[in-house]
Amino acid sequence: xxxxxxxxxxVDGLPGCEVTVTGDGSHFDAIVVGEVFDGLSLVKKQxxxxxxxxxxxxxxxxxxxxxxxYTPAEWEKAQKLQVS
Length: 84
What we know:
With 84 residues, the protein is α+β, with helices and mostly antiparallel strands. The chain has one domain (3-73): BolA-like (GMP Synthetase, Chain A, domain 3), CATH 3.30.300.90. It contains 3 helices and 3 strands; from the N terminus they run H-E-E-H-E-H. Strands 1-2-3 form a 3-stranded mixed beta sheet. Helix 1 crosses helix 2 (42-59). The longest helix has 18 residues, at 42-59. The chain is globular, with a radius of gyration of 12 Å. 26% of the residues are buried.
């Protein structure tokens, strides 16, 4: 697995989101920003992202994925606070 493969899975599963994925091998970090997360709890946001790569996790191709999911407004605020 490479970051681009993980990113493409998330983009395909959550159209309209901005996605950044870093990492290598089987451990990755993802930042996902989109209106799709509006009104959702942190856990629900992460569940939406995990759902896009669940088969990779189940197969063992993807061992660890750290997710930070934001609405555009939350992302703007996080960037101002330099929390990414």
